[in-house]
Amino acid sequence: MGNIVLDPHSEAIIEEYRTNLQSFQDASASLTDKVRGALSSAGILVASIESRVKEESSLRGKLELKGSKYNTLSDITDIVGLRVITFYIDDVDKVASMVERLFNVDWENSVDKRKVHEIDSFGYMSLHYVCAIPDSTYRFEIQIRTVLQHAWANMSHDTGYKSGVEIPKRYMREMSRLAGMLELVDDEFSRIRTELSDYRRSVKALVASGNLEEVPLDGDSYKSYLELKPFVQLNRKIAAVNQAEIHEVSLMPYLAIFKALGFKTLGDLNNLVKEYTEGAYQIACYQIGVTDLDIISSSIGPQNLCIAYILKMGGGRAGIKMMFDALNGKSPGNEVIADLLIEQSKDLPFMNQ
User: Which residues pair with 245 in a beta bridge?
Assistant: First the structure.
């Protein structure tokens, strides 16, 4: 488009663009930072934030087609453009609300294209705002769409769908069907997220109420259970043997161990703590009682609870090796540890109760 010849009025607009190009580039960067900061403060995770300043060649093409429509460069709203791409469709409205608070929205020129596409020609389109650039007479455009909407927009553009290019009806039908599937997937992702949030809230409520028998053992419920600090009392008792300091580590790796041992609910896990704390303590005393160890890991409690349970339930060498293989990776050394623990524990009081 570099050789497009424009009338004097349009050339004046081009000159105004050149004069203000650096300001537009600065605005693009600052607007992006402002949106990114607001999203972070609001706790809204998005896939990406894109920004661009319209190229002169693109502006020339626009003026060639519609130059008489614009009195000045200020009448062109897309010199600076931003796009926020969300993971979920319900986050589009959250981002929109944030944009409305951040900027002065030109409602007359803003369009929610989600509400205007024809029912029989699904146009996977975005929420589209025109806003004032702060401290400027110019405006910018910001699009808000989901990842799938963005994928559809790019794909339909590349294939010529909805672009005025005539393509065979067979492909039009297939594209429409695919668009409908994408719309359904978008809705389903949001539905699943909403239901997961509801589930997590219900789990927290059940854990807080103490109804642990009703709570299935899974990643979310286990995290909530750990908030009750179920192993702290045992760890402190073990630490007191040597007046040791407790080093806090993640206890999430033990979720897989507990599930492998057959625990189904948080009630099962709570019963493990109640019934095997003494055995776990006895094992720890044997392990560290004759040492000068002054720092222990917070994992010693759940680890020794599992060991006590495995030994008492007859899991023996294979069971203990399984646990250490899962925690530390498979190694011949885990067999040695298993044999040592069996030998050390066989005469402990809890094994004979």
Answer: 295
